Amino acid sequence: EAGVAQSPRYKIIEKRQSVAFWCNPISGHATLYWYQQILGQGPKLLIQFQNNGVVDDSQLPKDRFSAERLKGVDSTLKIQPAKLEDSAVYLCASGIRANYGYTFGSGTRLTVV
Amino acid sequence: QKEVEQNSGPLSVPEGAIASLNCTYSDRGSQSFFWYRQYSGKSPELIMFIYSNGDKEDGRFTAQLNKASQYVSLLIRDSQPSDSATYLCAVLYSSASKIIFGSGTRLSIRP
Predict the structure, then answer these.
(1) Which class for B67: exposed (0-12), middle (13-18), buried (19 or more C-beta within 10 A)?
(2) What is the Cα–Cα distance from B23 to B65, expressed in whole angstroms?
(3) In chain B, N or C: fewer CB atoms in 10 Å?
(4) Average pLDDT for consecutive 10-residue bins of chain A (113 residues)?
(5) Confidence category of residue B1, pLDDT binned at 50, 70, 90
(6) Would you call A9 exposed, middle or buried from its count of C-beta atoms within 10 A (0-12, 13-18, 19+)?
(7) CA dist., res. B102 & res. B8, Å (int)
(8) Which stretches of chain A are DSSP H helices?
(9) Residue among B5, B16, B45 at smallest CA distance from B109
C-alpha cells in the first residue's frame, strides 16, 4: 500500500512570501488532516477534511492559511503571507476512520527567514 | 480546553529494562487512545491504539488504559537502542471527532 505523499520536503522562504504544500492521501482514505508541528512540540491540528468537505478548521489561522481538497483526494495547504512563527513541519495524515488512527506523510519542513 | 499531558523527559532507561511512558487527558468522553513513535527528523508512526480499560499487548509493547483516572500508559519491555525516540500520546475526542496530541516524551535507551 502506498503511503501518504507530500511535497516539497523542504522549503525556505522570506517572511511575507507565500508558499503551498501538497498532499496525496492513501487511496480510499476519506479523512485527511493537516497538522503543524513546531520543534519540540506535538502536532497541532490545523484542518480536517471528510471527502472534500471541511469538518474542523477551528485552529486554522484563516487570515493567512487556506486549504482545499478538490474531488475528495489531493489537498493543498497555503500560507500567504508567511510569518517567522510559521516555521515548522507541516504534516498531512489520512485515515479510514479517526478511531483507527492516522497514517502520516513525511512532512514538509518550512523555514521562514 | 481539550488537553493531553505528557512528561517531556528525557527518560533514560538501560538496555533490556522496561520503559514506562505516561499520559493524562482531560475529556472524560474520549473513547480511543493512541501511541505514536517519532524518530528525530521523521514523521509520527502509529504503534498502538487502545479503546477499552485494561491492557493491550503487541510484541514488546503494552498499552494500558484507565478511563476512571483518565490515564494512558505505554510499557516497552526489553528496551533496545532502536526504541530511542519521542513517544506521542494522542486522544480521539469523540465530541469533535479529532485526534489531539500531547507534546511527547523523549525516550533514550542507554547501552
Answers:
(1) middle
(2) 10
(3) N
(4) 92 98 94 95 94 90 95 93 98 88 95 98
(5) low
(6) exposed
(7) 9
(8) none
(9) B16
Distance CA A3, CA A5 (A): 6
Q: What span, in angstroms and rounded, lies between the C-alpha atoms of A39 and A22? A: 21
d(CA B90, CA A43): 10
Is A98 within 8 Å of B98 when comparing Cβ atoms?
A: yes
- Letter for the amino acid at B95? S
Cβ of B101 within 8 Å of Cβ of A43? The answer is yes
Residue B73 in contact with residue B57, Cβ under 8 Å?
Answer: no
**Which residue in chain A has the smallest CA separation from B42?**
A106
**HSE, side-chain direction, 13 A CA sphere, residue B44:** 33
In this complex, do A45 and B34 lie within 8 Å of one another by their Cβ atoms? no
By CA distance, what is A42's nearest residue in B? B103
Q: Which residue of A has its CA nearest to B89?
A: A42
Chain A: give the shortest CA distance to residue B102, in Å. 6
The per-residue pLDDT for range B57-103, each reduced to its tens digit, is: 999 999 999 999 999 999 999 999 999 999 999 999 877 678 899 99
Is the distance from CB of B103 to CB of A41 less than 8 angstroms?
yes
Asked if the Cβ–Cβ distance from A42 to B34 is below 8 Å, we say no
